[in-house]
Amino acid sequence: MAVREWKTFLLPYKQAVDELKVKLKSIRKEYRRKNEYSPIEFVTGRVKEISSMLEKANKFNIPLDRIEYEIEDIAGIRIMCQFVDDIERVVDIVRNRKDMQIIYEKDYVTNVKESGYRSYHIIIKYPVYMAEGQKDILAEFQIRTLAMNFWATIEHSLNYKYKHDIPENIKYKLKTAADAAFQLDEQMLEIKDEIKDAQKLFEVKSSLVSNIMNNILTLSYLGKTNESIRYQKQLNDLIDEGEVSELNNLLNITERTLDMYK
Ligand code: 0O2
Ligand code: 0O2
């Protein structure tokens, strides 16, 4: 295939990656808007490099006209979670969607790969609407924790450097590091509630602070300089150590003052 034909071939995959990223990121946004914990920490996506596709086609003797059926990760989406048990929640979210048809799942979280690799993979069929009409493409989700992602990213770059022939001593160290990543995930799971509470507290406080700031700004626009300076000082005193209840009080006071002038 000429470069131009590759570009045309890859168009629906690029569109699928863009759409899937938006869809998954908006799940996170929705949780955050509701002030709830999101099982999705962040999402990345990529279309497979042409060189990497050719390499895979060569390795598995896949003729070019079979690539779209045989290479399942031309469109690749990675979903990162904070905790191991978030992975199941994300898998359930994907299973319940009507716009993504699951072809099969591979659980490398339970069945760790020989290399030490852990992740939950889902291959989906996804309809993309192009100018000429609908095209169904395959896409791969890799769902993993931050620790799994850290390990896989490093191991992947070493594989690239050593052309998949990593020296035994480094392989051994990677295995030990994979165990350490596993332990880290287990330990984080044990203090998950603690961490979630801290994160929630941070979010509640920052949303209170931003609402108070908005009210102070509005007062200042309305020409109520004295009040605005007074509340700004009170807010400054609360920023570091203030309790939620104190911030709530200040928010109520600024709201009542605003109501008086509106
Ligand atoms: P935000 O608000 O910065 O988090 P693009 O191709 O540019 O349209 P995107 O999503 O920017 O798409 O690129 P990509 O490479 O697919 O995804 C990168 C996203 O993952 C960025 O978020 C990064 O912030 C986020 N990311 C990467 N590494 C980490 C990490 O270690 N921790 C966290 N929390 N996020 C990470 P956004 O979408 O730009 O939004
Ligand atoms: P890329 O784009 O470079 O990431 P096989 O190649 O037969 O072992 P198969 O059946 O093609 O694997 O699919 P599998 O096992 O689900 O793996 C597909 C993708 O998972 C890989 O894509 C990697 O992204 C990731 N992966 C699987 N095993 C490992 C591993 O041991 N280490 C790391 N870092 N990643 C792994 P590609 O093809 O490597 O492409």
Automatic annotation (TrEMBL):
SMART domains: RelA_SpoT. Its EC number is 2.7.6.5. It is an enzyme of class 2 (transferase). InterPro entries: GTP_Pyrophosphokinase (IPR052366), NT_sf (IPR043519), RelA_SpoT (IPR007685). Pathway: Purine metabolism; ppGpp biosynthesis; ppGpp from GTP: step 1/2. GO terms for molecular function: ATP binding; GTP diphosphokinase activity; kinase activity. Belongs to the RelA/SpoT family. Homotetramer. This is GTP pyrophosphokinase YjbM. The gene is yjbM.
